[in-house]
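Deviations from the work plan: none for this task. Representative record:
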Amino acid sequence: MADFLLAAAAFVLAMVAVGLVRILRGPGDADRIMAAQLLGTGGIAALLLFAKATNAPAAVDLALILGLLAAFISVAFVKGVTRPETDDA
Amino acid sequence: MSFIADSITILAVSAGAVFFLAGTVGLLRFPDSHSRLHALTKADNLGLGLVILGLVFQAEGLLTALKITVVWLVTLLCGATISQLIASTARSGGASM
């Protein structure tokens, strides 16, 4: 079972890595941040599979932190792009 | 019992991996931002959800199972919020499209 979970983690990471091509191609900033969002989610899935496969429960905490940071990245992107003149926040 | 749990794990994790594959293909092949976002949210919600469903059957204790379920719920909450934000940004043309 551990081998299968490790293989699944590697597959998910490979898929996410292929998805990063979208960051190169663009064309818009929103498309690029979507690839980063997919990296966050795929990273969480890979970390959880890794935690179970290698019996390293601490990796579950890493997955939680990665999920939190992935959310912050996108919120920072939206705050940075949509900056209305009336909003000084 | 262990055989059933292992079977469910293999099925669910494989299905989750397929959703990650679909999310990546959609992100690369779909023509515009909003359909790409559609592909991305499937990978976010269903792909991760199925992987976690598979892992719950392998968890040693109730606490571990609850913890990884909470990881999924947090990701769902963040994903739903962020998809709305990215979609409105793409729609308003705030980002260079």
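Chain B touches chain A through 47 residues (CB under 8 Å).
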